[in-house]
Design goal:
Length: 311
């Protein structure tokens, strides 16, 4: 029987193989580790993860093209993250090893697809950026996401991922500004499960602590970002942008009054737009009565938000 340090050798080799996307070989190495110590907690957990990913890999291989294969693995990563969070005895370095496998495999598939077609497609560059970010290559992620943003300037999914990359690179000012833009455009297009920003994660937790669930969480993040000072980097709206924002506010107000079932989603989105209009009025030094009217509307919608906002 192997000495205890032999198990560590097998684990180290298995994790190295995962980095090289050699999942079957890694699983075989973990089997050897199990033979060395049938009760080793990390080995047992790693084998459980291995079974998960072998199934995912088989399903990914059946997709119609390399892009869809990469997509499947990213979706399975989201599910795996929940699985790991709920599994007693989960080991962080094991999770990180499978993370490198998942995002590395997805990156390989996206690059393969890019080589076969248009490698500058914004959607593809977005996915490549996400994969780089998942692997810890934040500079590479930023480059790909900047290219995607250049092709689609008002895409909230791209802007949020670029903001996330900037945050991880330490560029807080750019990150805050882009997150604010993304959540204004459409919070439902922001994939929270693929964001790593600590500040966004804190606001997500705050939203959950407030009893919000599902899609509501994304709608409350910009409101909480304003109240907590996270989304503090602001810009002045162009006249056409201000006009569109006012039209959007009118439409949301109408929807809120006519469809109560949509209130959990419409209310925070409307409050966020009121915040933007208040900032716009203050920047342009408009009559104070406009700001007071917006504040009154916020107070009627949510007195707690109003108190925190004016504090």
């Amino acid at each position: 029987m192997e000495k205890p340090d032999g198990v560590e050798t097998f684990l180290t080799e298995a994790y190295s193989l995962l980095t090289q996307r050699e999942l079957s070989s890694a699983a075989a190495m973990l089997d050897q580790a199990l033979s060395a110590d049938f009760d080793h907690a990390e080995v047992l957990y790693a084998l459980k993860c291995s079974a998960w990913w072998l199934d995912a890999l088989e399903r990914a291989g059946s997709r119609k093209n390399a892009f869809e294969s990469g997509e499947h693995i990213l979706e399975r990563w989201k599910a795996f993250s929940l699985f790991a969070a709920r599994t007693p005895g989960a080991v962080e370095r094991t999770n990180q090893a499978y993370r490198r496998f998942a995002f590395g495999y997805a990156l390989d598939r996206y690059r393969e697809y890019a080589a076969e077609g248009d490698g500058t497609d914004a959607e593809l560059m977005l996915r490549i950026g996400i994969a780089h970010k998942g692997l810890g290559d934040f500079d590479g992620a930023a480059r790909s996401l900047e290219a995607a943003a250049k092709a689609r300037r008002d895409d909230p999914a791209i802007l949020a991922q670029l903001a996330d990359a900037y945050d991880l690179l330490g560029d807080q000012r750019a990150s805050k500004a882009l997150f604010r833009e993304a959540f204004l455009l459409n919070p439902q297009k922001v994939d929270l499960e693929l964001l790593e920003s600590p500040s966004v994660e804190r606001m997500r937790a705050m939203a959950q602590d407030g009893g919000r669930t599902g899609p509501e969480i994304a709608e409350w993040i910009p409101v909480l970002g304003e109240l907590s000072g996270v989304f503090s980097v602001k810009r002045e709206l162009k006249p056409i942008e201000a006009s569109k924002l006012r039209q959007s506010v009118y439409e949301l107000e109408t929807e809120l009054s006519s469809d109560g079932s949509r209130r959990p989603f419409v209310l925070p989105r409307l409050i966020n737009r009121y915040f933007w209009l208040i900032d716009h009025s203050l920047a342009r030094r408009e009559d104070r009565s406009k700001v007071d009217e917006l504040l009154r509307k916020i107070k009627l919608l949510d007195a707690n938000v109003y108190r925190q906002y004016i504090a």
